[in-house]
């Protein structure tokens, strides 16, 4: 796969000692996102849910990781399993918005193919095959009350990065929000502390990295998991999972605060700045996977 000129240009700029101005194409070229999807965005553990969102056998939730949608299912033996949310028959989503959030099996409404909670196809039975086909499983880990997904089919070589969390986190009450922004994901990820301004004051704090494009912030009174899901080169979903101690009042996420520009790409990155460090690490990760 050829490397887009914007990435090559970033490499040359970072090798100089002066400030770096990433090119506009780095933030708009679909070919850059294709490279990132393959070599960066799907290559690490990502916290995608709180375990209480899958509290009972048969519970299921959808989650997007960049351009892919996954299905998390609480299996009958209390394990959580992860599949692509794509039917083996014709590729339609198995679970969609408004579908039941619990059930003894997974039913694809398009042509009524039925799967067990383990992802095995139950109906129709396909006589020509030896053994029932099964939805492909992805790596899942439960750490500190959070559910981590590994969106690559390769065996993970690392353990999830657990955030430094409050004792109550495994028992937290949760609330989800998402914000759609017409910006490239890097304009947000390069200065994650700006996203903390979206959170209720009690959950604001240093944004701890805890997986690819995910940060954890919080205090003893509230916490938040903030995750970026690039939709295309110029669109990103900010997914926020607010968590509060059992019995605490629920809080809300503010709108994107006016006066806080999401796009800071036009500014040069000075050596030693957070943005310079971000682009250095980003480039290293792209090259490591190459
Ligand atoms: S696409 Fe699922 S049953 Fe046809």
Which descriptors apply to this entry?
290 residues, alpha+beta, Alpha-D-Glucose-1,6-Bisphosphate, Chain A, domain 4, Rieske Iron-sulfur Protein, 2 domains, six-stranded antiparallel beta sheet, five-stranded antiparallel beta sheet, 5 helices, 14 strands, 27% strand, globular, binds FE2/S2 (inorganic) cluster
Specify the CATH class of the largest domain. Answer: Alpha Beta
Uncertain residue segments: none
Major sheet description = 6 strands, antiparallel
Secondary structure: helix percent: 10-25%
Measure the end-to-end span: 9 Å
User: CATH topology of the largest domain, which one?
Assistant: Alpha-D-Glucose-1,6-Bisphosphate, Chain A, domain 4
The count of helical stretches stands at 5
What percentage of amino acids are in beta strands? 25-35%
- The chain-level structural class is alpha+beta
Number of domains: 2
Count every beta strand, where a strand is a DSSP E run of 2 or more residues.
14
Radius of gyration over all CA atoms, rounded: 20 Å
Shape: globular
Topology as a string of helices (H) and strands (E) = HHHEEEEEEEEEEHEEEEH
Small molecules bound = FE2/S2 (inorganic) cluster
Spatial arrangement of strands, main beta sheet: 1-9-8-4-3-2
**Which CATH architecture of the largest domain would you pick?**
2-Layer Sandwich
Average pLDDT works out at 87
């Amino acid at each position: 796969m050829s490397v887009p000129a914007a990435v090559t240009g970033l490499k040359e700029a970072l090798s100089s000692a002066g400030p770096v101005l990433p090119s506009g194409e780095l933030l708009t070229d679909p070919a850059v996102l294709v490279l990132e999807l393959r070599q960066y965005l799907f290559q690490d553990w990502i916290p995608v849910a709180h375990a209480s969102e899958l509290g009972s056998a048969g519970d299921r939730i959808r989650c997007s990781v960049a351009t892919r949608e996954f299905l998390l299912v609480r299996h009958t033996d209390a394990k959580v399993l992860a599949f692509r949310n794509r039917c083996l028959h014709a590729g339609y989503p198995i679970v969609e918005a408004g579908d039941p959030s619990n059930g003894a099996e997974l039913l694809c409404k398009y042509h009524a193919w039925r799967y067990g909670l383990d992802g095995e196809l139950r109906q129709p039975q396909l006589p020509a095959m030896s053994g029932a086909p099964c939805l492909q499983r992805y790596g899942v880990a439960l750490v500190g009350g959070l559910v981590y997904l590994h969106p690559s089919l390769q065996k993970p070589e690392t353990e999830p990065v657990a955030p430094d969390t409050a004792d109550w986190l495994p028992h937290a009450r949760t609330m989800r929000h998402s914000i759609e922004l017409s910006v490239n994901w890097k304009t947000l990820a390069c200065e994650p502390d700006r996203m903390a301004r979206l959170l209720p004051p009690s959950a604001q704090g240093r944004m701890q990295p805890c997986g690819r494009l995910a940060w954890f912030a919080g205090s003893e009174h509230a916490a938040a998991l903030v995750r970026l899901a690039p939709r295309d080169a110029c669109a990103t979903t900010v997914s926020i999972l607010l968590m509060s101690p059992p019995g605490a009042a629920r809080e809300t996420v503010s709108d994107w605060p006016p006066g806080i520009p999401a796009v800071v790409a036009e500014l040069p990155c000075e050596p030693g700045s957070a943005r310079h460090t971000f682009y250095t690490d980003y480039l290293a990760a792209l090259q490591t996977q190459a």
